[in-house]
Amino acid sequence: MSNSSSETVSQPSQEVKYGEREIAEGQLITFPNPRVGRRYDINITLPEFTCKCPFSGYPDFATIYITYVPDERVVELKALKLYINSYRDRYISHEESANQILDDFVAACDPLEATVKADFTPRGNVHTVVEVRHTK
């Protein structure tokens, strides 16, 4: 038996995948707070944050923690996931990423209080945690 070289190897398509399209189009979506007037905390952990170092181009990895006290609006979680995934190919510093996430989050849902904590995976023996806060 001889091996035939007539087998075709499928190459990945260059078209935009549906997940990439959702990420690119992703916006923070909100819905009405079901308990306006009651102070309660919402804690969200996003363990797969990635971006790129604006100086070296190396990938940076972090866990993003968002804690907020909603006012009139609450952030929809799938939209938040897609928004966070949009940072994957962005060249942005640790400090700017945490601040930009907070700014966009506050613009979307106008919470009474919000904290974004970006806990970056150590690289080159340096561990960075950036925590930014908003109070209405």
Automatic annotation (TrEMBL):
Catalysed reactions, as listed in the record: 7-aminomethyl-7-carbaguanine + 2 NADP(+) = 7-cyano-7-carbaguanine + 2 NADPH + 3 H(+)
InterPro entries the record matches: GTP-CH-I_C/QueF, NADPH_dep_7-cyano-7-deazaG_red, QueF, QueF_type1
Binding positions for substrate per the UniProt entry: 75-77, 94-95
Matching SUPFAM superfamilies: Tetrahydrobiopterin biosynthesis enzymes-like
Keywords: Cytoplasm, NADP, Oxidoreductase, Queuosine biosynthesis
GO molecular function, one term: preQ1 synthase activity
Pathway annotation: tRNA modification; tRNA-queuosine biosynthesis
Protein EC: 1.7.1.13
Compartment(s) where it occurs, according to its Swiss-Prot or TrEMBL record: Cytoplasm
Domain of life according to the entry: Bacteria
UniProt-annotated catalytic positions: 53 (thioimide intermediate), 60 (proton donor)
Protein family per UniProt: Belongs to the GTP cyclohydrolase I family. QueF type 1 subfamily.
Protein's job: Catalyzes the NADPH-dependent reduction of 7-cyano-7-deazaguanine (preQ0) to 7-aminomethyl-7-deazaguanine (preQ1).
NCBIfam families for the chain: QueF-II (TIGR03139)
Record's protein name: NADPH-dependent 7-cyano-7-deazaguanine reductase
Species: Nostoc parmelioides FACHB-3921
Record gene name: queF
